[in-house]
Every structure is written in C-alpha cells, then in structure tokens.
Amino acid sequence: MSKVWPRYQRQEQELLEEALHHRERAQAADLHWQSVLERSSSLEQIVRNAQERITELRREQHETTARAESSRDALAGGRARRASVEQILNDRSYTADAVQKLFASNQGRNDSDGFRAVGVLADYAEVEQQYESAVEQFLRDELEYVVVETFDVARAGIAILREEVGGRATFFVDSLRKLNLQPNQPIVPFEFEKQTVSRLDRLVEFRDPLGPAAKQFLPRLQSAFLVAEAAVAERLARENPAYSFVTPDGTTYQGRVVSGGRPPKRDLWA
Amino acid sequence: MKRELRSLDAEVLQLEHASSEAQSALQHIEEELRAPD
User: Is the minimum CB–CB distance between A60 and chain B shorter than 8 Å?
Assistant: First the structure.
C-alpha cells in the first residue's frame, strides 16, 4: 500500500496539471472565438455600409446623369439661340433693332403662330453699283420694309412688335402677283435737264417674288430724281417742292429740306 | 439686339458651367463606384 500511494499522488498531480492546461486552452479558444465573432460583425457592418454607399452613389449617378443631360440640352438650346441671333445680326446688321428682333422672333416660331417674314425689301432690290449709295441713302427707310405675304401676316408681325419685342416696323405686303398692274408713267411737271440722270424708280429693279410692280407701291421712288450736281438739285427742289432730287453722294433736296451725311458702312444689297 | 446677344452669351456661359459641373460630378461618382475600396 505504501508503495502504491506515491504513484497515485503523482498521477493525480499530472491529471490536475492536464486539466488546468485544457482549461487554459478552452479559455484561449473562447477568447479567440469572441474576437472572430466581433471581427465578423465588424466586417458585416462594413459590407452593409459599402452596399448603402453604392446604392446612394447609384442614385446620385442616376440623378447627375439626368442633370448632365438636361444641362447639355439646355446648353445646346442656348448655343442655338445665340447662333441664331448672331446670324441675324450678321445678315441684317443694316436693319433697325425692331426689324432684327422681329426676324429673331420669326426664326423661333412655327407657321401656326401667324407670322412669317419673307425678307426685307433690300433683299429683292437691285441697283447698278454706281447708283447704290444714292439710292440706298434715299430709300433707307423703305429698304427695311419687312416683306410678308399677306395683310394678316403683317398684322401678326405688328402684334409681335406690340406685345413681345417692342419697336416699330413697316411691312410690305407681297400679294402683287395677284394684281394685274401695268407700269404707270407719272407726269413730270418739269423738263429733264442734262444733269438729271434718271427718275429713281428706273434705277431700281425688284426681283421676284416682288417684281417691277413693287415700285408702284413705293411712291417716293416715282417722285425722286437722281441729279448729277448739287446746284441743279437745289434749284430743281426750289422750283418743284413736291419732288425729291438726289445727288450721287446721297444728299436729298426737297423744297427747302436738305438731308444727307455719311453713308453707313454696310453692304445693303443682296 | 446686341444686348440680347450679350445676355445670351452670359446664359451660354452659365449653361456651360452647369453642364461642366454636372459632368465632373458624374465622373467623380463613376470613379468612386469603380474604386476597389
């Protein structure tokens, strides 16, 4: 018995040590397990956050794409409007502000709005180069008449000027083809002199669709004469106050009224 | 008319700015979506 006892004691000791060792390992494993659980939970949170961010970014992407497209469209529209106004300014730099605005407004419309300008009278007028300056200065108002097809269109243009763009303009209704007009020869109450070049209506031609009949609706053309010298123009104006006399530099004499100045720097003729 | 052109110039500039901002925001979002982390 005395020999066996120490062996039992040693075995018990060994078993106790082994149990202690396993307890420590179990505790370490438990700690590790806790740490892994925490890490897993943290990773799940990171994944959830990333998914939420991706969803948010997709929504932002969708909204921003729509905004970018709308900006692009608005920009294209803005550029087109700008180009159109610039084109009108370039094409019609000689015309009054109201007429330019009318043409700008005309471009942005469809036919159902009731207004459609064909052009301005200057677009259809043809004058020999040597008389251009005189005729242009004498007819500066008439050449800016806005050519339209009917009186209704002219009224629609006036409505636009009144209600939208402002200013005044004169409309020339191009329904002349329906009229069977014969060229008339107004009676001139004075003798043509050597220095009288021509009656002004003979120096201007109007192309289709206006044609020669247009002259009959521009009375100033038929009562004006191109005269080579200022002194002759002055005398004729005094003697015939109902008529205008224009010198080649564009100075106009009518009765006791003289008008003139520097011609505008522009190419009016089509 | 020239005043209108100037005002359109300003509008076009503003629209260009808005368009460029929207484009760069979009680019930024796309980069963020493509980023690895």
Answer: yes
pLDDT score for A185: 61
Which one-letter amino acid corresponds to residue A153? V
Structure tokens at A181: 């007009």
* Smallest Cα distance from A54 to chain B, Å: 7
- pLDDT > 90 in chain A, percent: 43
Break chain A into its structural domains and give their ranges.
97-259
Cα dihedral A134/A137/A140/A142 (nearest 10): -30
Token digits for A23? 């307890």
A191: helix, coil or strand?
Answer: coil
Peptide bond into A209 cis (omega under 30): yes
pLDDT at A108: 60
Report helix, strand or coil for A243. coil
**B5·A89 Cβ contact <8 A:** yes
Q: Does position A225 have pLDDT exceeding 60, yes or no?
A: yes
Q: Which residue of A has its CA nearest to B25?
A: A64
Tokens read off for A105 = 């407004």
pTM of the model: 0.59
Which residues in chain A are closer than 8 Å to B31, comparing Cβ atoms?
A: none
Tokens of B36: 């690895």
Longest dimension (CA), chain A: 172
The answer to whether the CB atoms of B25 and A86 lie below 8 A apart is: no
Cα distance from A126 to chain B (closest Cα, Å)?
27
Encoding tokens for residue A163?
């209600």
Q: What is the ipTM of this complex?
A: 0.83
Average pLDDT, chain A: 85
Q: Kindly report, residue by residue over B17-31, the tens digit of the pLDDT.
A: 999 999 999 999 999
